[in-house]
Amino acid sequence: GLSIVAGVKLADAIVPVSDVWPISPRWFGQGLWAIAIISLLAYFGLPGMTILTSMLVVLGTVAIATYLVYRGRHGVQAARVAAPSAAVFAFVALASAVASTLASSDSMIASAAGGFAAVGALLLALAVAAGEGIAVLPFQSVAVMPAMTGPHIEAPLPEQLRVTGNASADAIGASHQGVFDLDFASDVLTLSMEGAALLGLSHLLRVRHGDWIGRIHPDDRATYTRAIQDYRAQAGLAFRIEFRVRSESGRYPWLELRATMMGTGHADRCLGLIADVTMRKESEAEVMDRTLRDPLTGLGNRVALMEELEQLGSRFKTTTFALIDIDRFKAIHASLGDRGGDDILKQIAGRLSKRFKGTAEVFRVGGDGFAMLFSREQGTPSAIGTQLIEASAEPYLQGDRNIFAPVSIGLASGQDAQDPLDFLKNAELALLQAKRTGGGCARLYSPELELIAPGDAVVLETDLRQAIQDKQIDLYYQPIVRLSDGVIAGFEALLRWHHPTKGLVAPAEFIAHSEETGTIVALGRFALERAAHDIARWQKFFPVEPPLFVSVNVSRRQLRDDDFGIFLGGLLHNTTVAPGTLKLEITEGAVATDKEALAALTRCRDLGAGLAIDDFGTGQSSLSQLKDLPFDTIKVDQSFLRSRNDALKNQEGEVLLKSIIDLARDLKRSVVVEGVETAEQAAWLKSNGCKFGQGFYFSRPLPTAEALRYIAMHFDPSGASGVAGEA
Ligand code: C2E
Ligand code: CA
Ligand code: CA
Predict the structure, then answer these.
(1) Could you tell me if the CB of 406 is within 6 A of ligand 1?
(2) What is the mean pLDDT of residues 245-261?
């Protein structure tokens, strides 16, 4: 009877009965107990029990054999292995039963009892071992593998997988995976042949777990040990980790382990599969690299910069940070288009990388911004600033044209920063200051800059609206002078903001923003109204011929405003401004490619406004195009004079400037060269036939009262100055 109990238990352990017969484990267990008790009672000679036990033995052995044969025929390998012995067992039981019945005596069964007892003991031992999963079924636990994460996921598995057998092992090998078997009790890790092959070994690997950990890449070691430790506490948990392990050739292939913690409560074994995932990891690294690199220039991007800053550690204290921003990139982009703009960016990236090769790393941060990190050995921040300004002063070749792309530079020294973010913020503040000072220069961060730091955009916007209401916005006038005799010809009107706490704020700080929000429309109307009003008055006080003019900056956003024409028409109608002397000054970039803007400008001209093209030479329009554009005045960008001052580019700058002047004269357009800062420049322009100059050499932008005084001191009382129609 006990042999039968053991036999049933063993059969169930090898090939679970519950797979085909949904019997509850409790009933199953109780049935076995019943058999055990019946056989015990038979042993003590209870009437009827002996015959009952004999019947159970015969039926039981036959049932076990039948069951195993049945399962074996349905593909269960283990059942097939066990079926013959079960059949022999059943045959012996049957034979002895038949013999004992024929002989009508107990002796035959009794003679077989010793054999049964021995078989029973063996079966019982095997059943216990199988139940505990100690021997027999190395791959049984593969059953939980499909569940990758999450505790206690029990997936019903196709039978084939649950089985020990060559097919499974072959399949595992064929999928380039190996078996990973970590026994916590003995602290031994076993890797199957296939697993060991991933590390270049040709034999099964059995190592102490500690030695295995020693083989793991130092960067991954902590992850691995922590995972194993944490997961071990949750037996039944299936998990997946990736780590690098030193191979025989000294390389570190990436391995992926998918395994389950076996046991109850605290796991005593970790069993799973490992595979080589180096290829996948490398392509992931490539993707990662792409997230760190700017595709256009190939330079590191902002993320890469932040990583670099973080990796500097304490070294950032001895580092100089330069943020570089192209002053008029919007204009360059507007006139050269996407392709041209991109090309300039690439050229800038290339030039910076080449000039500072080995001394600094270049990053592209944002649309037209670059960042560089210099170590202390590369010189003081101001020396670095000078080098950078010099490097970006040269023009870039676009087709057959030279494009100037001067830059503003914000410098920060690591000493002044608490951490990388602080460092970046300091450089940004310095850059803002460089822009405020008019661009084309470098500024070094100092703590005082914090005081004039800008508020956020929303604050700026409400501030600006308030400013218009509170009459904090003012218009300054910068004289435009006739070079032949220094007589005043007109003014450029420039916005200023008397900020209650920041003091006088230059337009660089609020124009771009107000263009984005649309506040420029209100600001622009204010400027036009004030300028029209002032110039009408001055023309009355100083009636010279040709009359004094005023040039008011107008942005493209204003031209797009539907009511702009009506507003301008009304303004010209209601003031006594001489025809053509209220000029609209618009940047070359804003109109060169914008047909609508050009049409709007032409309408303005028909209303009686003059038109000046601003910052000429920074954009795309070629000299020959000028004759088709409706402008009466050309304002040559400051960068031309600056590049002329540079001994290196002396020739080129001069030739260009000269040809613009000559052509404009042929086309009967007035030329104003901006940024005249020295007497030498003024003299050179004069001797080269340039009619008008504007710049600090003559005067900085002046408030209304001072502008009036300037006229008084510089006007031509004979009133016969200038050639009619040209100014
Ligand atoms: P912009 O039209 O190129 O104006 C010339 C800028 O160069 C002015 O700066 C002027 O102060 C500065 N400047 C004049 N002479 C010299 C010189 O000799 N050397 C140097 N380094 N700079 C000189 P500001 O006043 O800061 O104006 C900056 C820009 O703001 C202007 O550039 C213009 O684009 C814009 N802006 C000013 N007022 C208005 C306005 O009412 N409406 C619009 N839409 N834009 C305006
Ligand atoms: Ca201007
Ligand atoms: Ca200008």
Answers:
(1) no
(2) 93
Q: Does ligand 1 come within 6 angstroms of the Cβ of 507?
A: yes
What is the distance between the alpha carbons of residues 108 and 50, in angstroms, rounded to a whole number? Answer: 13
d(CA 298, CA 315): 26
**CA-to-CA distance for 607 and 575, rounded, in angstroms?**
13
Ligand 1 lined by 675 (C-beta under 6 Å): yes
Q: Answer yes or no: are the C-beta atoms of 560 and 603 closer than 8 Å.
A: no
Is 614 near ligand 1, meaning CB less than 6 Å away? Answer: yes
In whole angstroms, give the CA distance from residue 701 to residue 699: 6
End-to-end CA distance of the chain: 124
What average pLDDT is seen over the chain? 83
3-class DSSP assignment, residue 414: helix
Query: Is pLDDT above 80 for 278?
Result: yes
**How far is the centre of ligand 2, averaged over its atoms, from the C-alpha of 33 (Å)?**
103
Residue 55 has a pLDDT of: 85
Q: Does the pLDDT at position 133 exceed 50?
A: no
Question: How many whole angstroms from 54 Cα to the centroid of ligand 2?
Answer: 115
Which residues are found with C-beta within 5 Å of the ion, ligand 2?
553, 585, 614
- Residue 725, pLDDT score: 39
pLDDT digits (tens, 9 = 90+) for 511-532: 887 887 778 888 999 999 999 9
* 396-398 and 633-636 strand pairing: unpaired
CB of 554 within 6 A of ligand 1: the answer is: yes
> Residue 616 belongs to what H/E stretch?
strand 610-616
Distance 536 CA to ligand 1 centre (A): 22
Residue 551 has pLDDT above 90, yes or no: yes
pLDDT tier for residue 69 given thresholds of 50, 70 and 90: confident
Ligand 1, atom 42, residue with closest C-alpha: 553
Residue nearest to atom 15 of ligand 1 (CA): 695
Q: Is the pLDDT of residue 683 over 70?
A: yes
Q: Identify which ligand lies nearest to the alpha carbon of 551.
A: 2
On the question of pLDDT at 270 being above 80, the answer is yes
**CA distance to 4, 7, 105, 584, 651, per residue, from 42 (Å):** 14, 19, 16, 120, 123
Q: For residues 619 and 598, what is the distance between their CA atoms, to the nearest angstrom?
A: 15
Query: Cα(271) to centroid of ligand 2, in Å?
Result: 76
The pairing of strands 442-444 and 473-482 is: unpaired
Q: Which long-range contacts (CB under 8 A, 24 or more apart) does 88-95 make?
A: 89/3, 89/7, 89/61, 89/64, 89/65, 89/119, 90/61, 90/62, 90/64, 90/65, 92/61, 93/57, 93/58, 93/60, 93/61, 93/62, 94/58, 94/61, 94/62
**Rounded distance from Cα 511 to ligand 3 centre (Å):** 14
Higher pLDDT, 17 or 553: 553
Does the beta carbon of 639 sit less than 6 angstroms from any atom of ligand 1? no
d(CA 404, CA 442): 17
pLDDT confidence of 131, banded at 50, 70, 90? low
Residue 443 carries which DSSP code? E
Q: What is the mean pLDDT of residues 616-625?
A: 71
Question: How many A from CA of 434 to the centre of ligand 2?
Answer: 19
Contact (Cβ atoms closer than 8 angstroms) between residue 378 and residue 322: no
508 lines ligand 1 (CB under 6 A): yes
